[in-house]
Design goal:
Helix content: 40-55%
Distance between the termini: 22 Å
Largest sheet: 7 strands, mixed
Strand content: 15-25%
Mean pLDDT: 97
Number of strands: 7
Number of helices: 10
Radius of gyration: 18 Å
Low-confidence stretches: none
Structural class: alpha/beta
Order of helices and strands: EHEHEEHHHHHEHEHEH
Length: 276
């Protein structure tokens, strides 16, 4: 099955609505997608309804923001096919609340330097479950201060040492893994090569705490993909893949279906759920 299992909509920090994603995924020849918005499952039901209309399989999923307490580094955890998604709600809402508070503070800081208004930015975050930096950057582009979402101005404002960046805590990875297990979902580490988490992946696989790895991703290098494939084979994990689609809010051009999961991934995910 031709599937892109990593897609973001306006419900988080993507530039397209759910209707558009489902329509264009079908137009692109995909047979399945997973809606993996950050820390929310709010768009899944609508995506599945539209998927049935267009003949596109839509897997319920969410990308959970976590922190590896051992290293202090962020980890993104994909949860596929949660059978009891309500078990995740408390953790996800807490993250969204913290992100929204941080987003409001970042907007206030930017407004000290630019003639921006909250009303202008709300045109982009009103459909989202939170306020993201890309929403502020889009509004700045409207006013002519930049021609791109990611670029020198983004780095100046929101990069690692950005003057307007506000950080907030993510839940511990172990807590997220436990809740995914309680929700009877499938835990997959997202783009592990990009964030240098290959050793973490080996440890979690050895401990039986994850069921898959996102092998095929635009920011996993060729060497990383080979190592991730080897880990999947050694620990019998499910290799997944996806574009990490954000529409025009992507740092690089990344059309739907640019990166896809192996053909048997969707069936393996469903078999895992049925075999629990």
């Amino acid at each position: 099955m031709i599937a892109d299992l990593h897609c973001h909509s306006r419900m988080s920090d993507g530039s397209l609505g759910i209707d558009e994603i489902v329509f264009f995924a079908k137009r692109a020849g995909l047979a399945a997608i997973a809606l993996t918005d950050h820390d929310t499952l709010a768009g899944v039901t609508r995506a599945q309804v539209l998927g049935k209309r267009y003949g596109l399989e839509v897997l319920p999923a969410v990308e959970i923001s976590c922190t590896d307490e051992g290293s202090g580094r962020p980890v993104h955890l994909l949860c596929y096919l949660p059978q009891k998604p309500d078990r995740l709600e408390g953790m996800l809402k807490a993250t969204l609340d913290r992100r929204t508070a941080a987003g409001k503070e970042m907007l206030a800081r930017v407004m000290r330097f630019f003639p921006l208004t909250e009303e202008q930015v709300s045109k982009y975050f009103s459909h989202s479950q939170s306020i993201y930096r890309v929403h502020i950057m889009h509004a700045l582009a409207d006013l002519g201060y930049t021609g791109e979402v990611y670029g020198p101005l983004y780095e100046e404002l929101f990069g690692q040492n950005g003057s307007c960046r506000v950080r907030f805590p993510y839940p511990p990875l172990e807590q997220a893994l436990n809740l995914v297990r309680d929700a009877q979902g499938i835990a997959v580490i997202a783009h592990p090569g990009e964030q240098g988490h290959l050793q973490l992946c080996e440890r979690l696989a050895g401990e039986g705490k994850i069921q898959g790895l996102e092998v095929y991703h635009p920011r996993n290098s060729v060497c990383d993909r080979e190592r991730l494939r080897e880990i999947c084979e050694r620990f019998q994990l499910i290799p997944t893949g996806g574009t990490d689609f954000h529409g025009s809010y992507s740092p690089l051009p990344s059309p739907l279906g640019s990166y896809m999961a192996p053909p048997d991934t969707v069936s393996r995910l469903f078999r895992y759920i049925r075999g629990r």
